[in-house]
Amino acid sequence: MSPYSRRAFLTAVGIGLLAGCAGGDPADRADGAASTMPSAPLPSATPPAGAARPLERSAPVALRIPAIGVDTPVVRLGLQADGSVEVPAVTADDRAGWYRYSPTPGQTGPSVLLGHVTVGKYGDGVFRRLDRLRPGDGITARLENGTTAEFAVTAVRTVGKKEFPTTDVYGNVARPELRLITCGGPLTGDEYRDNVIVFAVLTPAGER
C-alpha cells in the first residue's frame, strides 16, 4: 500500500468518511458515513496482467463524466480540526473535491473524490446523478501537470451508511483506481440514509 492510500485507509477506519450530502439548509453539516475496522490486515497485491501503467503523482484540477453531464473543477480536501474529513463547501457553484490523503488519479491505489448530491437552497449537487452511471462509462480527471487520466466505471454501489465498505473504498489495490462518493437513498430531514460509491479503473490508454 502506498503511503497515501495507507494514510487514507487508517484515517477512514479511525473516524469514518464524510460523504458530501448536504440535504437541507447550506449551514447544515454534511452527513457522515460509518466505517468499520477490517478483520484482517490487507494483503499485498501484484498488478494484474494488462493493467494500465500508473501515472506520476499530480493533483486533479477538473473532473468530467459525460454520461451524467458532470464537468467540474476539483478542490482539495483534508481533515477538519475535529478529525473529520472535509467536504466541498455548500455553494451555488458546487464542485467536487479530492481527498488529498489518497493517491492522485492515475497513481497506484484508490484515488477518492467526494461531491454533494444536493446543496440546500441551491438545488442539485455536482454528484446528483452519480447513481446513474453504469459499467463502462468514462471518467476523465484533468491533472495539475497538464495531462489527463482516463477511467472506466467498473461498479456502482449504494450502501447504507452504517455498512460503509471502508476496506473496499480505501483498501490496497495493485492498479490505479478511482472512487467517487456521494449520498443517496431516501432523505429524512436533512440526512440521506445511504452512500453511492462509484468504482473505476484507469484504462490502458489512460494518460493523454
Q: How would you sum up this structure, described in words?
A:
With 208 residues, the chain is mainly β. It has one domain (3-38, 58-207): Sortase (Sortase, Chain: A, Beta Barrel). 9% of the residues lie in helices and 37% in strands. The protein contains 2 helices and 10 strands, in the order H-E-E-E-E-E-E-E-E-H-E-E. The chain has helices at residues 3-15, 166-170; strands at residues 17-18, 32-33, 60-65, 70-77, 96-99, 109-114, 138-143, 148-160, 176-188, 191-207. It has an 8-stranded mixed beta barrel. The protein has a two-stranded antiparallel ribbon with strand order 1-2. Strand 9 (176-188) and strand 10 (191-207) form a beta hairpin.
Largest sheet: 8 strands, mixed, barrel
Return the average pLDDT rounded to an integer. Answer: 80
Number of strands: 10
Task: Give the class-level CATH name.
Answer: Mainly Beta
Q: Helix/strand/pairing class, anyone?
A: mainly beta
Succession of helices and strands = HEEEEEEEEHEE
Short description, anyone?
With 208 residues, the chain is mainly beta.
